[in-house]
Amino acid sequence: MEAGSTDLEGECDGILLLDADGQIIGLELELDSSVSNTDLVFALEHPAITYGQGYRLLITLFAEEPDAQPLSEPVILDFDTAGRLQGCEISAAREFGLGERLARLAPFMIALEDETDLSDVVAARLAHEPTATIDSADAPGTATETIADDPAAADNLVAPPAEPAVASQVRSGFVALVGRPNVGKSTLLNAILGQKVAIVSPKPQTTRIPLRGILSRPDAQVIFVDTPGIHEPRTRLGNYMVDQARRAIPDADVVCMLVDITTPPQRLDERIAALVRRARAPRILVLNKVDLPNPRGAEFLAAYRELGPWDMEVALSALKRQGTELLIDEIITRLPLGPQLYPAEQLTDQSDREHIAELVREQVLRATEQEVPHSVAVEVEEWQEKAQAVYIRATIYVEKDSQKGILIGAGGRMLKRIGSAARRDAETHLGRPVYLDLWVKVRSNWRDDASALHWLGYRPDGS
Ligand code: GDP
Ligand code: MG
Questions:
Q1: What is the pTM of this model?
Q2: Deepest of 33, 113, 445, 461, by most Cβ within 10 A of its Cβ?
Q3: Which of 226, 272, 290, 319 to mutate to test the pocket of ligand 1 (most atoms within 8 A of CB)?
Q4: Residue environment code for 89-106, b if the CB has 16+ CB neighbours within 10 A, otherwise e
């Protein structure tokens, strides 16, 4: 599968349909209610695909009575930017011998990948259009270029072309900071940059848009990309976040995988590590939260090591800012020589408007419980530089009337509290008085609404 050929991803459970010889002749997918008929427009045009009750998508490519084989891994669905299902990827345990069971599927296949030591992955395309076919001769049994282990190919991807006379010994490059939600990525970024750039909260998934934090020293410039955690997608916004995290890794000069050393690796750590292992760049395992008591630390450390191989390990406390200097040094020695890509005084590529919207969202997350956080988006709608203060009008979008009620609170108290905390942060950031005018509006299901996502600035291509 070509990287970038699809823009959104989802996951669902699936069953392989096999003929009497064990050859795959179809697939049954359990879609959830977030997938609509419009999303299935390509699939439903296909004569061999039916869409049955209970959101079951049945792909029977041959008219035969099949045997069934449940899949242990979820099927990954690929959608285009308009949210239309374009194809899917299935993984199976190595012992299943996926490669040998694909003969009858060859006309529908895009690629067979050898993803990890554990499983084979097949990408198939359901849609007629747009086609990205490959020669059928190339289909089963060949690895795709996207995961090639070819070091020569790596040279084409990393490091901007070396500029001959630019500040000879400066090292510069991109560092992907990956890890499941809540391990401390944003805290680490803020600790390294010494200023509040990324928002932090005890609730997972507070960072939505990948954020570049820029560390400039006379000898180096490090551009950190704080990716949203890879997590089990539920809605389109979830899909977007998974996609972004996947994208950050191949572009990085160094990949730092952050883990919480006070807990054993979870399924998400394993999934992220599998993506990290594919990176050509040096991989650093960052063990965070060493300030906390951790009687089983040695056991957890051994388990995280198993997710490697790692080029380096660094243990630190992002919160207490212990060990962060060492990490920076280890990163810098692994960066290529190259020009400074941003002015030395620039800390982030986030605009003031985006940053203020994030500050408001942070206060909403802090002030509210459960139901509200995941369904909040904030948009700065008006910005006026006035003599006494900056006038900023921002709207907090929620999905339900009940959430709007919670956010406003009795007598408007909740909204006032959110507003004054966000205003203080905004004043610190801008260095001048701010008049913050906050509104709450209901926009139902914005998380699943592709046009709303686009409109709120969640662009799959990261632009
Ligand atoms: P992210 O989702 O990976 O970006 O995680 P955050 O940076 O938002 O942090 C999640 C939570 O973990 C917050 O409550 C942080 O204060 C806390 N945290 C982060 N780093 C550390 C650390 O080194 N020690 C301790 N004790 N807590 C931390
Ligand atoms: Mg974060």
A1: 0.49
A2: 113
A3: 319
A4: bbbbeeebebbebbebbe
Tell me the per-residue pLDDT of 441-458, one tens digit each, with 9 for 90 and over.
Answer: 887 665 555 554 444 444
Query: Residue 375 and residue 369: Cα distance in Å, rounded?
Result: 12
Record the tokens describing residue 214, joined without a space.
Answer: 């820029």
d(CA 317, ligand 1 centre) in Å = 9
Contact, 115 vs 274, CB < 8 A?
yes
How many angstroms separate the alpha carbon of residue 316 from the centre of ligand 1? 12
The alpha carbon of 203 and the centre of ligand 1 are apart by a number of angstroms equal to: 10
Whole-angstrom CA distances from 205 to 232, 249, 294, 307, 351 are 11, 18, 24, 23, 21
Residues touching ligand 1 (Cβ under 6 Å) are: 179, 181-187, 200-202, 204, 206-207, 229, 288-289, 291-292, 317-319
Task: Please count the other Cβ atoms lying within 10 Å of the Cβ belonging to residue 166.
Answer: 12
The residue assigned the tokens 């709120």 is 456
Which atom belonging to ligand 1 lies closest to the Cα atom of 316? 23
For residue 104, give the nearest of 43, 70, 62, 71 by alpha carbon. 62
